[in-house]
Known about the structure:
Layout: E1 8-16, E2 32-39, E3 44-49, H1 54-64, E4 70-73, H2 82-85, E5 87-90, E6 93-94, E7 97-98, H3 105-118, H4 129-141, H5 147-157, H6 160-167
Helix pairs in contact: 3-4
Amino acid sequence: MREPFEGSVECDETTFGGYRPGKRGWGAAGKIIVVGILQRNGQVRVFPVQKHSDSEIIRLVRLHTKPGSLYYTDDYRAYASLSVRGCHIVVRKEKGKPKGRAHMNGIEGFWSYAKHWLYPYRGVPRKFFHLYLGEVSYRFNHRAQDLYSLLDKKLKSMLAEDVRPILVQNA
């Protein structure tokens, strides 16, 4: 497992999926809920989850961040317990813009980046969504590097037998 994030961390969740008639927001049918954790000026980790569950979101935050971190979140109730784990700053918004100096621009920027990358596909099969999301987060985390040379180096170090099990893993 990768080393947990420390320092300033932004946590947020969003939904992926196209326009659908009917209910809006977190109860909309057919949407995929994704939790994101971003280390400020660093990397992002994203996780598709089955439902908008407080316990699952906090479990992921605890697993992927170190105690004593500075957490920036929205006012969703699941994050209320983070003040016990470290310093917690709630970013409140007014008409879509943060009030005050605290912000979550990093993770919000990643959501925009991810949705922009996935838009041309006009829908991704739910079964493979975690693979597409993994690619987007890899691109984001290595945006200052040449992806061709990174992937070429990675592929040359792997055996063909090692690739097959990775492609059939489920989220």
